[in-house]
């Protein structure tokens, strides 16, 4: 693969990370609950003097380490580049929160519209990372690793993984505030929609393949998302 193709792929991947951060921020600003992957960092950011992005960075590092612990010598060498994804992902989440700081949805229909916008943007970010086909976001990487080790379907492990993050967020929230913060109906909607929207993105953009991008199917990994 030529250096130019590699540069383009990593540019697409980084752009996907940006849209993921922006999508996560939009779902958070909907005030209907944030995305499952952001539920724990969001709750922790309300307790400790760190931003959502900083906790996202720390959680991504944890996911990366879990992958290495599980796979050990079988951990793909090229996936060590995931360590560079962690700070960028956290940075883009905080950047997204700043970009969306003007959003103040009060009416329920406004909240729903902001939430759906966030789901579409988040799904587009996931799609860009998939077609870039270089490295994996640690949040997805740890799910794939567990699925590989257990022999279970990616989609089923993804549901269990997201549910675990949400449960932890709920428990910590109840302990710290006496009520649930960050996890609401929007969290469930986001978990249900993003995978399906990602598939739709694949259909829409399949006619706009660039010669530097190898088109790959995402149905297998996201069939149960």
Automatic annotation (TrEMBL):
Pfam families membership: DUF6198
Transmembrane domains' residue ranges: 7-26, 46-71, 83-107, 113-136, 157-180, 186-205
Keywords in alphabetical order: Membrane, Transmembrane, Transmembrane helix
Keyword Membrane found: yes
Protein name according to UniProt: YitT family protein
Phylogenetic placement of the source organism: Bacteria, Bacillati, Bacillota, Clostridia, Eubacteriales
